[in-house]
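User: Predict Related to short chain oxidoreductase/dehydrogenase's structure from this.
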Amino acid sequence: MSSPTTPLVWLITGSSSGFGTSLTFIALNAGHKVIATSRNPSKTPDLVKQVEDLGGIWLALDVTDTPENLQKVVAEGTKKFGRIDILANVAGIGILGALEDFSPKEAQLTMDVNFFGPMKLTQAVLPQMRARRSGTIVNFSSGAGINPSPTMGMYAATKFALEGFSQGLANDVAPFNIRVLIVQPGAFTTNMMNAIMLTEKEMTKDYHDTPMGPFLDFFKGDQQFKAANNVEKGCQAVFEVVTGTGRGKGKEEHLRLLLSSDVAQRALDQNAKIKAGYDAFRDVWENTTHDGGVRKAFNEL
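Assistant:
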C-alpha cells in the first residue's frame, strides 16, 4: 500500500494508552483519518479532544462485547468516514501466573480480549474490504507469540491463537487484495506492562523455586516498568510498513513484522529449536508414508 492520495481510514483499538495512542496520533498527524476506540472514553477526555481536534473521532468499544455491538461501532465509524481501510487490533490484556493456577474465568477473559475481540472485529470489517477488494488487518501479537517467558503461558496461548488466525486469514483474503500484518513487539515501555495482573490464586508453592518465582516477583513491586524499546519508534515503523512508505516500501508481501531486537533474537532462537527438531526426527518424518506408493498429499489439493 503506497502513500495515499486520499487519507486512509484507520480503526484502532486500545487507543487510550501505549501502542494504541501512539499509532492513533502518528496516523492523524500524517493526514489520515482515525476512528480511535477504548472501553471508557470518559476516562481520557484530553486524549479524546486531541483526536477530535485533529479530525478523528473517538468511539466507545469493548472488544469483549457481542458481535452485534461491535458491528454497530464499525457501522458508526464507516458512516462518518465512508469506509475503513485499516483495522489495527491493538488492545490487549496480560494475566501472569502458572497455568495450573488460572481460573476458567481468568483464562476466558484473556482469550476474549486478546483473541476473540480481534476475531470479531475482523469479521465485522471484512465484508466492506472484500467488496472494495482492498484493506489491511493489523494484529498486534507479542514476543510471547513466538516463545513465552515464564508465567506467560496463558498470554502466549492467546497470541499463538491470534497468530494462527492471522496466518489462515492471510490465505483466505489474499485473492481479494486484503493484506494481513502480524506485529510482534518485544519489550516496550507501555502502560500494559505496568497494568499486568496476576492470577487471583497465589502461585502454587512448588513453582516458586523455578524460573517462574523471580519472574513473577518482579511484577509484584510498585516500580514502573521500563524497557529498552521506544513505543513511538515502534509505532512509526508499524505505520510505514502498513502504508508501504519509508522502511516499509516494497515489503508488502511479508506477514510478520519483528518490532525490536529482543524479539528478533527470540525468533532466531525459536527457529533454531525448530531446525534442531527437524534434524533430530528426520528418521521419523521421512518414514511415515504409505507402503507401496505415495498418495495425493493434503497440501497438494
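The mean pLDDT is 92.
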